[in-house]
Amino acid sequence: MRLSEPRLLIDINHVAVLGGIEERGGALRIGALARHSEVGASPLVARLAPLVHQAIPHIAHPAIRNRGTFGGSLAHADPAAELPACAVALDAVLLLASRRGERKVAARDFFRGIYATALAPDEIVTAIEIPPAPAGGRSVFLELARRRGDYAIAGLAAAARPGDLRLVFFGVGDRPIEAKAATAALQREPAAGRVAAAQAALARDLDPPGDLQADGATKLHLARVLLGRAAAALAA
Amino acid sequence: MSETVEIRLTVNGEAVTRRVAARQNLVDFLREDLGLTGTRAGCEHGVCGACTLRVDGAIVRGCLLFAAQLDGARVETIEGLSDSGEIAVLQAAFHERNALQCGFCTAGMLITAAELLARGGVPSRAEIRDFLSGNYCRCTGYHAIVDAVEAAARTRAGNGPP
C-alpha cells in the first residue's frame, strides 16, 4: 500500500533488552518487543494491568498476536487500535531512546494523529511503564467490530480507580480520545439518569469522522452504546 | 531495493543457506526459492491467513515477514508437518468431513488448528471459531472445518463423538 517508503529498514527483533515483562519500582514495565500473545498470557499483566489483559484478545488473530508487539502497536498509532487507548486510560509512560539519549513521554501526549506520534525520526520506543491497578480498581474493555479480530468500528477502554474514572474511546477520531464531558456526567450526583446524561454529553467529547466501516453518526451512536455497557459493568 | 542478505535457517528440519533480496517476503522465498508451494500467498497483507506457517514454534503470517529476518530461525511449513505425521489426525478429519473444497486455505487452516490442539483438551466450538477467525475460507462456510477440528480434538483426547 506504500503508506511509507523507507530507504532503510532495521530489524530490531534480536535486540533482547527491548523485550520482557517485569515489575520494576512498583510499576509494570512492558518491553517494546513483548509480543501480544506474551502480554496476554502474563499473570503479571493480568494482576497489574487487567485492562490490557482484557484488551489483548481483541487484537487481530493468534498468528498476528504471536508476532505483533506492544511497542510496535503504540509506535504505529493506528487510531482504531486497542493498546494506544489502554495506554492513555492507564496513564502509561513511554520510554523513548535515540543516540541523543532517553526520554519519557506520557501516553496522553504521545499520540498526535493518524499514525502520528511524538517520536522523532531517529527515536524508537523501548518500553512502556504502567502504574499498577490499585486495590478496588475496575476496568472494562469493549469494542464493536463486524468480524472477530477486525479493527474496531468503535471501542472503549475504561479504567476506574477510587475517586478517578477514565473513559478513552478509539476508532472514533484521529487518536485515542478521553471523554471528559461524559466522564464528568457519569460521576455527578444523584446517580439517577446519569448514564443517559453521560451518553448525551459524549457529543461534546467526540466528533467521529466517517470511514469505510460506518459514518460519523453511527460511530457516535455505537460509542454511546459502549458507554452504557461500560457504566453498567463498572456499577455491577 | 536491490540489496541482498545472506540467511542461514532451518526449514522443515533441513539447514538452508540462501542469499535473498532484502524485500522478499517469507512466502515468496518458500515458494519461489525453495519450491515449497504448500504455503499460499493470498491477500499478502496479513488478513486472510492462507500463508500461515510456523516460525520458532509459533504460527505467524508468512506474508508479513521478510525472508531476510529469518537468519537463525526454525521454519515449519505444511510440507514438513505432513511428512512428520504431526497433523495426520487433523488431515484425516478434514478429509473425512470434507472440510475443504478448493483447498487454497487448507494449509493455513491445518497449521492454525494444530496450534489450538497443541494446547490440549477439547476446545468448544466457540473457541475453535475464535481461534480460526483469522483464516478465511471462501468455499465451505466454515461449518465442516469446525466439525473436523472438533473431531480431531476428540480423537486426540481419546474420546469419540459425544
Layout of strands and helices, then pairs:
The complex is a heterodimer of chains A (236) and B (162).
Chain A: E1 21-24, E2 27-31, H1 36-41, H2 43-48, H3 50-55, H4 62-65, H5 70-76, H6 82-89, E3 93-98, E4 101-106, H7 107-110, E5 111-113, E6 116-117, E7 124-130, E8 138-144, E9 154-161, E10 164-170, E11 177-178, H8 180-187, H9 194-205, H10 216-235
Antiparallel strand pairs in A: 1-2, 2-7, 3-4, 3-7, 5-6, 8-9, 9-10, 10-11
Chain B: E1 4-11, E2 14-21, H1 26-33, E3 52-55, E4 58-61, E5 74-76, H2 78-84, H3 88-96, H4 106-117, H5 125-131, H6 143-156
Parallel strand pairs in B: 1-5
Antiparallel strand pairs in B: 1-2, 3-4, 3-5
Structure description:
The complex is a heterodimer of chains A (236) and B (162). Chain A has 236 residues and is of the alpha+beta class. Chain A has 2 domains: 17-130, Uridine Diphospho-n-acetylenolpyruvylglucosamine Reductase, domain 3 (2-Layer Sandwich), CATH 3.30.465; 138-235, CO dehydrogenase flavoprotein, C-terminal domain (Enolase-like, domain 1, 2-Layer Sandwich). Chain A contains 10 helices and 11 strands. Chain A has helices at residues 36-41, 43-48, 50-55, 62-65, 70-76, 82-89, 107-110, 180-187, 194-205, 216-235; strands spanning 21-24, 27-31, 93-98, 101-106, 111-113, 116-117, 124-130, 138-144, 154-161, 164-170, 177-178. Chain A has a 5-stranded antiparallel sheet. A 4-stranded antiparallel sheet of chain A has the order 8-9-10-11, sandwiched between helices. In chain A, helix 8 (180-187) packs antiparallel against helix 9 (194-205) and helix 9 (194-205) runs antiparallel to helix 10. Chain A is globular and about 55 Å long. With 162 residues, chain B is of the alpha+beta class. Helix content of chain B is 35%, strand content 17%. Chain B is built from 6 helices and 5 strands, in the order E-E-H-E-E-E-H-H-H-H-H. Chain B has helices spanning 26-33, 78-84, 88-96, 106-117, 125-131, 143-156, and strands at 4-11, 14-21, 52-55, 58-61, 74-76. In chain B, strands 2-1-5-3-4 form a 5-stranded mixed sheet. The longest helix of chain B is centred in the C-terminal third of the chain and has 14 residues, at 143-156. The mean pLDDT of chain B is 95. Classes of the chains: A alpha+beta (236), B alpha+beta (162). Chain A binds chain B through residues 1, 9, 11, 13, 37, 60-64, 66-67, 147-149, and chain B through 22, 45-46, 49, 52, 58-61, 64-66, 68-69, 112, 115-116, 129-131, 133-135.
